[in-house]
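DM from R.C. (forwarded with permission)

"hey, sorry to bug you on a friday — could you get me a structure for this? deadline for the figure draft is monday and I only need the backbone to look sensible"
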Amino acid sequence: MKVIQASNVGNQDWNYFQEKKQLNNPLVLVFGNRFLLEDEQVIDAIRAEFPYEHLVFGSTAGEILCCNVYDNSITVTAIEFENSSFVVERANILDYQKNAQDLGEVLYQKIPKQDLKHLFVLSEGSFVNGSSLIKGLESALESQVRITGGMCGDDSRFEKTIASYKENPKEGEVVLIGFYGASLEISFASFGGWIPFGPERIVTRSQGNVLFEIDGQPALDLYKNYLGDKASELPKASLFYPLNVTPQDRNEPVVRTILNIDNANSSMILAGDVPTDSKVQLMMASVDNIADGALQAAEFGMKNRKTKPEFVLAISCVGRKLVMDQRVEEELDQVREVIGERVPITGFYSYGELAPFNGSATCELHNQTMTLTLISE
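My reply, with the result:
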């Protein structure tokens, strides 16, 4: 495997992290600020610098490259596989009446199944229901195949996200990358570091990812009472106080970030499903807890690997970035300490992370986690 990485901050010259060289048919991952990815001149400059066919674009709430976290930048990682291969497919949620489950089913059917080893998803992040997308992708999934990925971001604006494959980035896109090859070793892990606090309550009315009532009270009103003065800063303020949700049929809770609010009916729109009768609790975190969560994710991802990873995709939540603020790179330091200083890392800060629970096979939508996909061949 050959990996070439470069960043461009403020439309300056490209800064390469490895020796610049021509690659053979690489997978090129382009992560960047949404406004930059909407600029055709920026896209043209990316295509000129990286004149390859398989370009995947995604907007972010912060770009990860090596040991650095960038804002308002473009980061590019080009990966040439020597013993393995990949296939990329795409679909747009707007063509499916915003039904993420239907899109997921169709998108998975497009992917060749022979020798399929792993799936990585890069999804629109502002209105796609990540839980429904996973249901669609897994509806006919072969038992040995696992799914990881992330929901695109838009800093802390929550206005819109964009993504694409080959085309210029646009709203509504969901990109699915299939990895193939007997020699591929892909491990993954997802861990948070957030701590539940306050009373445990019950979801009494919800529909999909829309939360209407908790303990028979309007959900948004109850949540605002907890936030106090910070309620005026919603939905951004919710990134500091996500919800810990435990559905009736699950032992493991999932963390849910609030993507938007509806003052008219006192409801909250979450990044994934929050089923009726689920237990729900507020959460909070410290910088040290979040950094330790990244460390635990790296340790689990490295556990039982036969080979050292040659490349790592890191998807972390925008809420973690806001809490850590100027110390945000500490969670990358923890990851690098475990996986090795010289292993290339790329990724972004997201509106949701996709991965199985550690030790599980079924994918889940997470919020407020560090999710790692470690790849070697």
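R.C.: lifesaver. DSSP finds eight helices and 26 strands in the chain.
me: no worries. The radius of gyration is 19 Å.
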